[in-house]
Amino acid sequence: MYKIQEAEMLANNIYRMVVEAPRVAQHCLPGQFVIVKADEEGERIPLTICDYDREAGTITIVFMPIGESTKKMKELKAGDAFMDFVGPLGQPSEFCSEDIEELKKKKILFVGGGVGAAPVYPQVKWLHEHGVDADVIIGSKTKDMLILEKEMEAVSGNYYPCTDDGSYGHAGMVTTMVEELVEKGNKYDVCIAIGPMIMMKFVCKLTKELGIPTVVSMNPIMVDGTGMCGACRLQVGDEIKFACVDGPEFDGHLVNFDEA
User: Fold this and answer.
1) CA-wise closest residue to 174 among 154, 194, 147, 153
2) Cα separation, 84 vs 169, whole angstroms
């Protein structure tokens, strides 16, 4: 059993939990994910790792209740436990294996949408800890749905919140914020987009026009998370990939979003 140390509601229908999972915490890197199961009858839910503490042996997850199992998950409190907490799964972010001095020369832009802010955070934090500051754009429908703002501001070079209704930060979609930054003279070497599929699709459409290489984190339906079921297959260029073992990160300009 994997004990829950902390449980809270971050924003409207978005929840955060800190879970005791020493083995996962010891080996995980930004970009990877876990599959959790609350009880014997629950579904196996893939969730990107939001944060980790190797010394404390904990993993932080963030989720939005949608189906029956995640709705049950939100009722769990500190002191309760998950029956299964499997990971780390998937491949770490590519920059984790890059030369740090070369990374420091790059201008990196992160674009997150909604709960996508959760997997963006550990990547930006890792870069910050290694002396690399990145610009971060996070979008949501309204101000009260933005999450991890203080945490993101603490580790990013520049933080740009966006709201669809214009209630806070930049008024409009994340793509218009990208356009604004580029028009102001920012030249990005790479963009990393994480969020709803439709958001990533249009970010990639824009960055392709702008000539900015783009990485996306794909989150299709998964069953086993080990590449056996094939439910998470994607077409990336001329190849078929499985998000759970080959990803979750891929070249966004090669992903067939319409098929996905």
Assistant:
1) 194
2) 39
